[in-house]
Design goal:
Layout: H1 2-15, H2 17-21, E1 23-24, H3 31-34, E2 40-45, E3 51-57, E4 65-69, E5 73-74, H4 80-88, E6 92-95, H5 110-126, E7 134-139, H6 141-155, E8 162-166, H7 172-179, H8 185-188, H9 195-198, E9 206-211, H10 219-228, E10 233-238, H11 251-262
Helix pairs in contact: 5-6
């Protein structure tokens, strides 16, 4: 009986794995409610034919553009407060809308999110923003997207300016094993986001930010990824911070200090 019950449990987890990983808010995001009414809605077309809504505001002269890949829940409306300080400082900002999130068509998957990210960067390139003026900012699950796309850009001899990883993980396999230690997740997972295999190839300065009290993505996964990264790299391990409250511990100031260090203000 135990073996049968275990087999049923494993089967249920296998078939429901994407609904356990992705928690999209499918409602249409509202710029005014997000506090970013000065952004504009743009459409980026993926290689598999999806028209995806993102929000964008161009950078002031000589400033880079921050491209934000959100975590696994909500939609881009919830990221307005994260975008606002960057825009007020003159940075360009793109909040990337994923498939299946925020009224966008399609269903999320690892390969799908990579396609969405590639479409966003193509949109920027077509509008005069080259990769060398782009900062990829990944949040939680979005760190897996940021790492993979940064590695691809470096492999195409078009590295991005920098990468910021907020509450990153080494791989979804590692994270899933933390949540389900009694299940053979390495054999089951469709979406793996193996950042640990790509982090050394991103070809750009990288900042790691992680709360020491993070119970969603334990900091040991972020530190494992940091150890695998090449220089130049920086870490901001935040005492007393959890997964979703890093902004209360100086997140934005630390990120802007990092970015200003890459491109010091002109005298």
């Amino acid at each position: 009986m135990f073996v049968f019950a275990y087999a049923v449990l494993v089967g249920v987890l296998y078939f429901l794995q994407r609904s356990l990983l992705y928690h999209p808010d499918t409602s249409q995001p509202d710029m005014k409610a997000a506090g970013v009414a000065d952004m504009q809605a743009v459409q980026a077309t993926t290689s598999d034919g999806l028209e995806l809504l993102s929000w964008y505001r161009a950078a002031d002269a000589d400033m880079p553009t921050v491209v934000l890949f959100q975590g696994n829940a909500g939609n881009i409306e919830l990221r307005g407060s994260k975008a606002r300080p960057f825009m007020d400082a003159g940075y360009g900002m793109m909040l990337v809308g994923y498939r299946g999130f925020g009224g966008n068509p399609g269903s999320p998957s690892e390969q799908g999110l990579y396609e969405d990210a590639r479409a966003a960067l193509r949109y920027l390139g077509e509008n005069g923003v080259s990769a060398e003026r782009v900062v990829l900012y990944g949040e939680s699950l979005g760190t897996g997207v940021a790492v993979r796309i940064a590695a691809e850009q470096a492999g195409e001899n078009a590295p991005v300016a920098a990468v910021v990883l907020e509450a990153p993980f080494s791989s979804i396999v590692d994270a899933a094993a933390f949540y389900y230690p009694y299940v053979p997740v390495s054999m089951m997972l469709k979406d793996r986001f193996n950042s640990i295999d790509a982090i050394a190839d991103i070809g750009a300065p990288v900042l790691f930010v992680h709360g020491e009290e993070d119970e969603v993505t334990p900091i040991r996964f972020g530190k494992r990824l940091f150890d695998a990264a090449e220089e130049p790299k920086q870490a901001f391990w935040v005492r007393d911070a959890g997964h979703n409250d890093l902004a209360e511990f100086g997140l934005h100031d630390r990120v802007t200090d990092f970015l200003n260090g890459l491109n010091p203000p002109k005298p």
